[in-house]
Amino acid sequence: MLAKRWCPLVSVLLLILSYNISIMSALLSNIDLDQVSKDKITILIADDQPLLRQALRNLLEKYEDFKIIAEAGNGEEAVQLATELIPDVVIMDIAMPKLNGLEATRQIKAKCSRVAILVLTVHDDIGYILGILEAGAAGYLMKTVFGEEVINAIRSTVTGETVLSAPVSKQLLKYAHRYPIKPFHLDTKQKLSTRELEILKLLAKGISNKDIAQFLNIGERTVKSYLVDIFNKLRVSSRTEAVITGLRHGFLNIDELE
C-alpha cells in the first residue's frame, strides 16, 4: 500500500524541511559560497527538450563557478554520460524517452553515488516526488522556479543539502496530513492560545520569525518564546512538525499553507 511504503521516507523528508516548510529561497539565501569547492561545479543537463537545455546552459554559463560538461536528450544517454564523466550535479527531467528520469537516477546513483541529482520537472505528483527522492535525488524543483532558485539549488546540493521547491514541500505536507504517523490528543492545559494559533498559521505560510514579529507588532524574542511554548504543547521540535501536527488536529488546513 502506498501509505505504508512511503511513511518512513516522508518522516525523513519532513525533518529535512524543518527549517522552513514552504519558501525554498529562505532555505538557500544564506548559502556561503566559500563552503562550495573552489573548483568549478561540473554539470550535466538531462532533458528531452533542446530549447530548455539551451535555456539552462545560457543561464548557468553566466556563473563562473559552473561548468556544463555535457547534455543528454534521453535517460539512457544521461546514464551513459554521467557514469563516464562523473559530474558533480545532474539536472534531471523525469519524462524522457528511452529511460525515464526515475530509472536514470537509480542507475546513476548505483554506479556513481557521489553524483548529485537535481530534478527539474513539471510533475508534482506525490508518486514521482517520493519515488525519485527514494532513488537518491538530492533535490526536486518545479520548472516554474526562478533562475536564481536553480542556481542556489545547484550550489546547495553540492554541499550535501536536500532542496525541495514550495509545491513539492506542500505535496509532502498533504501526504503527511493524509497518513498521520504519530497522532495524539492535546490535554486541556495544552491547548493553544489565540496568539499561539495565530503564530502557527503564520508558520504554515513559511514566514520568518522577524516577519512574524513585524506583522504582529511584537518583538522577535517574544515570537521565539511563543514558538517554544507551541513546540512544547504540541510535543514537537521544529516548525514543520508543528505545522504537520496542526494539520492533523484541525488547527490548520491546507489552504493556510498558501
Can you tell me about this structure?
It is a single chain. The protein has 258 residues and is α/β, with parallel strands linked by helices. It contains 12 helices and 6 strands. It folds into 2 domains: 174 residues, Rossmann fold (3-Layer(aba) Sandwich), CATH 3.40.50; 76 residues, Arc Repressor Mutant, subunit A (Orthogonal Bundle), CATH 1.10.10. Helix 7 links the parallel strand 5 and strand 6. Helix 4 packs parallel to helix 5. About 8% of the residues have low confidence.
Concise structural overview:
The chain is of the alpha/beta class and 258 residues long. The protein has helices at residues 2-16, 24-28, 50-60, 75-85, 101-111, 126-134, 147-158, 166-178, 194-204, 209-216, 220-234, 239-248, and strands spanning 41-46, 66-72, 89-92, 116-121, 139-142, 163-164.
List keywords for this structure.
single chain; Arc Repressor Mutant, subunit A; 2 domains; six-stranded parallel beta sheet; 11% strand; elongated
